[in-house]
């Protein structure tokens, strides 16, 4: 193509901005790496069915359009996952972006005449789900937020988590003179309490501000040097020079300089969205775990479909039209439970959508493993058949009292998910800790097979495309084993492809 043709083609190339979000460790980094690697590897097994019959298809990475957003470190993450001693990559800590371009021979006569292929840019925007929590702050004053935050701290699931912070707050009076050292100490204790409550009680995952949990490049900045105070009901604005006034000013600056720009500059430009959720961990929290998950989903849906008069509704020039909800790490369970996992997530999304009055976007739920680390194994013991998975538990992981070294393989029975999704929400049936999920190391990957496009075997998620392994240490899988990436991609982009 000529330079002029390239320029014109760039101008008229449709761009779809895909947001990828989820709480910390929900699987965003592995998902983006797996999706991009699978698309770049046209010869990979299993192939992407949406692209299987497209002759002349090219997929490549291009420089991203926004110079002020860090690039998603695809190559580093891929190197971590596909080296001789594969390890999970470093997780998402801030926003990042990657541009992937799909190109195929022109379909319409105008492009053919100009010698221009058809192209599609997919701009993938990875951002922490914790940052979505902050949307609620935009409609809250400092005193309203303080009242909520202090209430949550006092009703913490484990009181020792918030004890130091509450003790410190007990010594501060709103009218005390503003002191930086107090603001720093209070913010530090508040941040520690938030982090610990997140770890110990997943229901607190919706507590913010989000940057206290994942500060991105704000670490140490005055913008996150504030904390909530017990405020007298009648006193809504701090007296000049008081601690109250200082913390209130910082809170408002956080909204103006951190929260608003994120929603205006990044969030409002998304066209489609993937929300990754660790449903298996929620299931292990029994019925309460699932009700917390539903609560969290409600908050997420409110961000995607804000009320007509909310702050966000004024800045959203367009609306996200497709949202994929994905239950990640589905390779922790046997294939017979994958559909059940999908059905449980689907129920949780439907219930949250009803409560948040969500309508107008095409949503679908998926069971997903962006990198499949296990294979399905059926074991018979005392005449009973168990649906197990086999993989290499990560170093230090305990299975049946035995500590693993990261090299040896283990066969584990994680438990079967219920056939009726409603059973997972029923406190009479769903118990805490009823499953045994194991953290597995990434598989050892074989080099991409050199199979010409159009002749590669297409595998299904039902059976792994590689045979049974006999020794975990030498276990090697085909190019990029996954569960569900193909279906999810087709849902999101099928309408944009030839
Ligand atoms: P992020 O914080 O959302 O970026 O989460 P990551 O993508 O870093 O994933 C967090 C952890 O979840 C990883 O270190 C893995 O232990 C696990 N994980 C993520 N995706 C998969 C998957 O497809 N299969 C398995 N077995 N584990 C996964």
Structural description of this entry:
This protein is of the alpha/beta class and 498 residues long. 34% of the residues lie in helices and 15% in strands. The chain contains 14 helices and 14 strands. The strands form four sheets. The protein has a seven-stranded mixed β-sheet. β10 and β11 form a beta hairpin. α6 runs antiparallel to α7. The chain is globular, with a radius of gyration of 25 Å. The chain starts with a helix and ends in a 5-residue tail after the last helix. The structure holds guanosine-5'-diphosphate. The site of guanosine-5'-diphosphate (GDP) has 21 residues, from α2.
Top keywords for this entry?
498 residues; 15% strand; 7-stranded mixed sheet; binds guanosine-5'-diphosphate; 14 strands; alpha/beta; globular; 3-stranded antiparallel sheet; single chain; 14 helices
Shape: globular
Number of helices: 14
Q: Roughly what percent helix?
A: 25-40%
Please report the distance between the alpha carbons of the first and last residues: 21 Å
What is the rounded Rg? Answer: 25 Å
What about the largest sheet?
Answer: 7 strands, mixed
Look at the helices and sheets and give the structural class: alpha/beta
Oligomerization status of the protein chains: single chain
The total count of strands amounts to 14
What is the mean pLDDT? 84
Low-confidence stretches: 451-474
Q: What small molecules are bound in this structure?
A: guanosine-5'-diphosphate
Q: Which sequence of SSEs, written as H and E, runs from N to C?
A: HEHEHEHEHHHHHEHHHEHEEEEEEEEH
